[in-house]
Every structure is written in C-alpha cells, then in structure tokens.
Specification:
heterodimer; A: 539 residues; alpha+beta; 16-stranded antiparallel barrel; 15% helix; B: 157 residues; five-stranded antiparallel β-sheet; 6 strands; 30% strand; globular
Chain lengths: 539, 157
C-alpha cells in the first residue's frame, strides 16, 4: 500500500510540468475542502466529498496513464533537440517516437565509412618506400520503413584525382574536339555494396542489390579499420584465391537470417543467386613510332557486370555459420557458376571455404581456408584464339592488323590457401595515466601474428596460338608464403594505428611479381621484407 | 518486447509491478555522472522505473535507459536487484545497421551479477562480438547507467 502511495506522488511530480490541470484540480479540491474550525460535516457530506475526490483521482490517473505512454523526448548529452518531435502513442522514448513519426528516408539516413592509409619500406628495388592511400569508403544506411533497410558503400581506392577535359578546337577553319582524361594511377572507384533488405523474420531476410559474396569470413568483414594489420590477406587480396579480389560483391538477390537456440548456440546463413564472376579484359594499347599498334590484353576473372550478364548464366553462393558461444564461430561457404562469356565454351568455377574464430579471454585465433577450381582452362584459351581470328572478341582494335599479346592472368586449375591470425589484447597499467590511456575508456594494444600460404597449381603463364589453334600453353605450380608480426594500438574501437613487419617469399629463382598483385619485384627477386605502418579509422 | 512487458519477463517471480516516471533533473544528472565518473552518451529526459515485488518483499527494479551504439541510440530494459547487481536485461530497440547480436540472450547473460564496480568492457570481463564492438561498449555503459540512476534515486544502496 505504501508503495502505491509513493507511485502516485512521484508520478504527479514527474508529470507536473506537462499537466498543469492536475495542479489546478488539486488546488480546487483543497479550496473546496472545509477550513479548520469550520462546522463539523455530517457523515453523508464526508462520504459525498470522498466520492468526489475518488472521481477526481480516477480522472487524474487516466490523465497520467496518457502522459506515461508518451514520455518527453530523449536529449543527447551535448545538446537538446532543436525542434520538438511529436511523440507517438506507446513510444518508450524519442528514438521510438522518431521511428514512428519518420517523415522521410533521409531523416534516418546515417553516413559512415572508413579511411585507411599506409607507409611501407621494402627491400625490393622497385618498391623502396612509399605512402599508399589505401581506401576511403563512404557508407550509408537507412531504415526506409518498418522491416525495410537499405545500405550502400562507395569505395575510392588509391583514388585521389579524376579530371575529364573536353573542348572544341578550331584550326585552319576546321572544327574538332579534343578530349583528355587524367586520373590517379592504379586507382578505382567502386560501388561495393548497395542493397535493400526486407526482414520477414529474424531467420528470413530478403536482400537484393549489389551484395557481398559470402565466401570466407574476410570478404564479409573487410573494413580496414576492423583489422589490426595494415595489409589484407593473400588469399583475399594479394594472391587472390577468391574468384575475385575482396571486397567481392555481385548483383543478385537472396536470403539471410539468424536462428538463436538456447542449447546449440546461434546459426546464421546467407544464400544468394547472382550474375557472378566472369572473365573480363583490360586492354593496354601502345602506338609505335613505325605506326604499328600493339595491344596487350589482360584477361582475368572479375566480378560480374551490373548490366547485361555476358555469361547468360547465373551463379550461386552460400555460407552457413555456427556460433556455439559468443566469440566462437565456424563457417562453411561455397560458390559455383560459369565464368566464361557466352562467346567462349561454357566452363564452371567453384570455390569452397572453411573459416573460424576462437576467443579465449584476451587471446583470439581467426583463420580462413579457400580453394578455387577453374575448369577447362585449355578450352577457354582455344576459344579465345578462335574468337580473335573471327573478330568476335572486342578489343577495341583491329585484331588481325595489329599485334596483340594475350595474358590470362590469375587463371590456374586450382588455387588454394589460408591465413591464420593470432592476437593478444592488453594495455599496461603504467600507461593508463599517459596520453595513450588517459582520455580513453578502453584503449588496447594488440599483438598480432599472421601466417599465410597460397598454392597455385597449373597457373597459366603463357599461351601461344597460330590461326585458330593453340600451339602451346605454358603452366607452372607456384607457392607464396608470408609471415607478418605486428603491433596495433586502438585508443577507441573505431581507430587503429598499425605497425608490422612482413616477409613474403615464393619459389627460388622466380619473381614475386608474377604471383602477387602488390609487389613489383624484379625477375629474380623471390623474397620481400617490408616494414609497414598504417592508420585507419571508421566514422 | 515493449517496455511494459519487460518487468514480467526480467523478474518472472514478481507478483506486483508498479511504475513511475522520474524526470531527469540537473541534480539527478550530477549524481549519476559522479557515480559513473564520466557523462553518458545521452541523457534521457525521463526514466521509466518499474518496481517488482513478490508479496511484500522487494525483488528489484527495471529501468529503461538508452546509449548510443555507433550512430543511433539502443534502448534497453535493465533489471537490477536491490543489492545493485544486474538481474537480467533486454534490448527493446536496436537501430544500427550491424551489430544486432547484442540482442541475443547469450550475450546479455554476461552482465548478470555484475555491478557498478565491474569493468563491463569488451575483452575485459565481457566477450566482444566482432563487428559490433561499439554496441558491446554501449551495452556496458547502459548497465552502469541503469545502476547509477537507481542509486542516485536512492532505490538501491
């Protein structure tokens, strides 16, 4: 009973600012009540007044219930909301009120992203030392409506400049056009993700758009600021065993979901159908002084198109993960689809991956194994030879009148590899009151060791053909190993400073440049020692 | 889960639930801030506090608090026992694009029995969720804020 009285009293205090009528009614009650020393009231009069008061109390309670169902808005610690927000009935707070009264998608759109850069000093003569602007990624997400969410991620990789100039020129009375494109070397602008998701249930979410392919654990968690070493793993990036380098996304649709159980932990899955990886070409043309035009055509598997599917065939990818407890996860994933354009013989590629993570207090062990198989590489080469002669292959040059070199890059019968990363998190007490710890809630140092191996079996080095016939295909088996030791400092979860030393090596007497896409080694340089320092932050 | 349903779920043994709404006054903020040693990421303008009783005996309190994850506030209902330790918790609303695993029971169970004196930080006494570190940190702050508000109100010692 005592508790009930307190409830009423405190509620009245709590809502007094918003319910001036309550005070007025109470005051009225007091004024109507007999003054001390007035004539003694009869029992009937007292009962009548008591009933009146009960009625007033009932009205007050109703008013308070209405007030409680719509509490005042929540205010950020730093500043109060500039404009009052209508609070929806039943809302717990401003956040829920905002969700209920959202005027447009834009009001809920949140801009985020990350930026990463790196300095490296190598004993490779052609690399020496350099700063690299790794990535600037802008991301945005919005809850469009209840159960509907959209997410977009735009990446600027090594990108600092793009300038397009087009002007009309007049010379000797003749009109013409001049066009030039300038841009930063080896840079890229890429739409990494752009999808809409409809949550039918926690275990069934429909997703459509440009989606990260769920093969391995790195590709789906690839943000640079999440990792403690300043270079991505070999299998995902440097010597890509994944059919396309991370971050690998494709246009498609599918489902994902989570099923949490009390006894067996949490299961999650992703399954998508998509355009899928296709052989794509990049052409470098060189005009000789003699008037000859040389073209070097590099053909390699790349993420599929966002327009017409040149394969006229769809690919599928799926990942299932089991997390028996927080911090532990085991994942199995795979991809299957045709990788040849429709003017070439239909050939398939498949990739499988096993990945996992184990956490034991401050220790973490995380890793990923990927195996990819390209079928019918010889038939694909034969098809290319035939297409060039028949002018089916569009290089942008006249193939029979110009010298064309073909390079089938990154194609091997089988590619496989893994990375395994061990981490130990700590923060010494003697640093707590220094600039490294004083201003931060949970600063951390992370010791990291990563071991990686990649094997490329049947890697295509060179293809010679005459007329429509392939005369020889040169192949080799190669390996690439890398060991990295690093120390990272995270003052807050979104910011990381990374220092590391890495040693990369391949077959004796052979160049690292032929098997990696990031080390410009000379023909006999098969070992690279590199010091790296990087910084990355998310926002 | 709605806020009104939280007390029954977090204190299933309770036979009587009463509710009050406490406005966040500057004085209350000052007391909470002193208990936390630092300000929270946001101040609610009012706290919904549910008192749970079993017969005549007090079993605890459920308070609705919010903390910012990465971009958006996460709304929690946190059950606190009279001795100032966490009985249980539930996420009433999660609005971030990633990191929704903090809603899972197995994650929230880590806070049971923890108090204001505990670290409640990722990689210390709480297992982190990769890719959701900010939400994990927010959950720890929310637990501490809930206990601090109840202490500042004099509900718990």
């Amino acid at each position: 009973m005592r508790a009930s009285v307190r409830v009423v009293t405190e509620d009245i205090v709590a809502s007094s600012r918003r319910s001036r009528t309550i005070a007025a009614v109470l005051l009225g009650s007091m004024l109507l009540a007999p003054a001390p020393g007035a004539r003694a009231a009869s029992m009937e009069e007292l009962e009548q007044k008591l009933k009146g008061l009960e009625e007033q109390m009932r009205t007050l309670k109703e008013q308070m219930e209405q007030t409680k169902s719509a509490p005042p808005p929540t205010a950020p610690a730093a500043q109060a909301p500039a404009t009052p927000v209508p609070v929806a009935p039943g809302a717990t707070s401003l956040s829920e009120a905002l969700a209920a009264a959202r005027p447009s998608v834009l009001s809920d759109f949140r801009l985020g992203g990350y930026l990463s850069s790196r300095f490296e000093a190598s004993d490779l003569k052609n690399l020496n030392n350099t700063f690299t602007f790794r990535r600037f990624v802008l991301s945005g997400d919005a809850t469009i409506a209840e159960k509907f969410r959209a997410y977009v991620e735009l990446e600027l990789e090594r990108f600092t400049e793009l300038e397009v100039e087009r002007k009309t020129v007049s010379e000797n009375g003749q009109q013409g056009f001049s066009q030039s494109i300038e841009g930063s070397n080896n840079s890229e602008v890429s739409l990494e993700q752009a999808w809409m998701q409809f949550e039918l249930a926690k275990w069934l979410r429909f997703r459509m758009g440009n989606i990260l392919v769920p093969v391995g654990r790195f590709n789906i968690n690839h943000d640079d600021n999440l990792w403690n070493l300043p270079r991505r793993s070999l299998v995902d990036r440097g010597v890509p065993v994944l059919p396309s380098t991370a971050a690998w996304s494709e246009v498609g649709l599918g489902f994902n979901g989570d099923v949490a159980t009390d006894r067996w932990g949490t299961f999650s899955y992703q399954i998508y159908v998509m355009n899928g990886v296709a052989l794509d070409s990049s052409i470098e043309t060189v005009a000789r002084g003699s008037g000859e035009l040389e073209a070097e055509v590099e053909i390699q598997p790349r993420r599929g198109t966002g327009n017409l599917d040149v394969k006229r065939d769809k690919a599928g990818a799926a990942r299932i993960a089991w997390s028996p407890s927080i911090g532990q996860e085991l994942g199995l994933s795979g991809y299957y689809g045709r990788y040849t354009p429709d003017f070439l013989p239909s050939e398939q590629l498949w990739a499988i991956s096993v990945d996992g993570k184990v956490t034991l207090g401050p220790f973490e062990l995380e890793g990923e194994y990927v195996r990819t198989h390209f079928s019918g590489i010889s038939r694909v080469a034969q098809g290319f030879a035939r297409s060039v002669v028949n002018k089916e292959f569009g290089t942008g040059t006249a193939p029979l009148e110009a010298k064309i070199d073909f390079e089938l890059s990154g194609l091997a019968d089988t590619k496989q590899g893994y990375w395994i990363e061990a981490r130990y998190r700590f923060f010494p007490n003697f640093l707590r009151d220094t600039i490294l710890g004083r201003s931060f809630d949970n600063p951390q140092f992370i010791l990291v060791a990563r071991g990686e191996q990649v094997w490329l079996d049947g890697l295509v080095r060179q293809i010679d053909f005459e007329d429509t016939m392939v005369t020889s295909i040169s192949r080799e088996n190669r390996f690439v190993n890398r060991m990295t030791l690093g120390l990272a400092y995270r003052p807050v979860p979104l910011i990381v400073f990374q220092a590391a030393f890495e040693r990369t090596w391949t077959d004796s007497g052979k160049s690292l440049a032929a098997v990696t896409n990031f080390l410009p080694a000379r023909t006999t340089e098969n070992i690279a020692n590199t010091f790296l320092f990087g910084a990355a932050f998310g926002f | 889960m709605q806020a009104e349903e939280a007390p029954r779920q977090l204190f299933p043994e309770a036979s009587e639930i009463t509710e009050r709404t406490i406005p966040t006054t500057p004085d209350l903020q000052q007391r909470v801030r002193a208990l936390l040693s630092r300000p929270p990421t946001l101040w609610e303008t009012a706290y919904r506090v549910f008192t749970a009783k079993q017969g005549a005996s007090l079993v605890g309190f459920v308070i609705v608090v919010e903390e910012i994850g990465k971009h958006r506030p996460i709304t929690y209902a946190i059950a606190v026992k009279p001795d100032g330790t966490v009985q249980d918790a539930a996420v009433l609303a999660y609005r971030e694009a990633y990191g929704g695993q903090v809603r899972e029971r197995r994650f929230l169970r880590q806070y049971v029995g923890k108090g204001l004196g505990d670290s409640l930080r990722a990689y210390q006494d709480i297992r982190n969720i990769a890719g959701a570190t900010l939400s994990v940190e927010a959950t720890g702050r929310a637990m501490k804020k809930a206990i601090a508000v109840l202490k500042a109100l004099g509900d718990i010692k």
